[in-house]
Amino acid sequence: MISNKAKAHIALLSVNMIYGANYLIAKGLMPHKIEASALVFLRISGAGILFLILKLFIKEKVDRKDIPRLALCGFLGVATNQFFSMNGLSLTSPVDAAIIITAMPIFTVIISYFLLKEALTTQRILGVTIGGLGAVLLIYLGNSGVGTGSITGNIFIAINALAFAFYLVLVKPLMSKYKPITVIIWTFLFGFISMFPFCIEKLIHTNFTSFETSNWISLFYVVVGPTFLAYLLNMFALQYVKPTVSSSYIYVQPAVAMILVALVSYLVVNSQYKGDINVTKLLCCVLIFLGVYLISSGPLKWFQKKQT
């Protein structure tokens, strides 16, 4: 019999594999079949409807004083996050996007220092510096002309990570006060309201008649997989493991993205993704991973000795 903790780890692995594959699948839709903003509209509204169906089985009210925080969480964690994620991915390499997003814990530490007054140890400062260097270097490489990277797209992905980091800090007290599905439905509601005026026009002008069966399958995956299903699996996992354990699985995303891009580049003649994986990008990946490791791990013996 599999324990609940083991199931939680399987769920987290599945979530990040879903996210990792999404970089390539969503990229395949944009911008030739659907504009990024139109895809954002479908992701938020589609997953929101599915969450609303689940909410019908859970009756829970929220305090009026928490509405402004929920609205801000919806703006940052859903609308801004999704808008810059999809628009950034439409402009840059799926490999670059998957690597840059792993810098999210670095942003979270910095924001927590200013908003929650959490201490910044020497180890964490070094982690932020090393990881930040890797992220900045990778963003700059988007202008190198090698592969499908783009400096604008990479900046958008960084904004996406920054917005979601703010969301993680702001949503923390709400998650301890309400059931996860209650928080999610409210954040998706405000996220929908925030993105509507910026995305509806692109949706109206989308030519869905040009969609082939493979495009509809990809669209279904993007809406249900990394938007709806991933949230559900995360909610299940967080009942049995700590958030720090959950965030450590973010390393799976660039690994999955790189494997899929490598397969496509190998199998498809004249693939647009040739050049997306190179030694310099792998070095940036290592720097970000090292930085996040220093931030998320306990005090290392070397740093303990230096401080005593």
Structural write-up:
With 308 residues, the protein is an all-alpha fold. The chain has one domain. It is 76% helix and 0% strand. The radius of gyration is 19 Å and the shape is globular.
Summary keywords:
mainly alpha, 308 residues, 13 helices
Write the layout of secondary structure elements.
Elements: H1 4-29, H2 36-55, H3 67-91, H4 94-100, H5 104-115, H6 122-141, H7 151-177, H8 180-204, H9 213-237, H10 243-248, H11 252-267, H12 279-296, H13 301-307
Helix pairs in contact: 1-4, 1-9, 1-11, 2-3, 2-8, 2-9, 3-7, 3-8, 4-11, 5-6, 5-7, 6-7, 6-12
Offer a quick outline of the entry.
The protein has 308 residues and is mainly alpha-helical. It has helices at 4-29, 36-55, 67-91, 94-100, 104-115, 122-141, 151-177, 180-204, 213-237, 243-248, 252-267, 279-296, 301-307. It has one domain (4-307).
Beta-strand content: under 5%
Question: How far apart lie the N and C ends?
Answer: 47 Å
* Number of helical stretches of at least 4 residues: 13
Percent helix: over 70%
- Unreliable spans: none
| Class based on secondary structure composition and strand pairing | mainly alpha
- How many extended strands? 0
Major pleated sheet: none
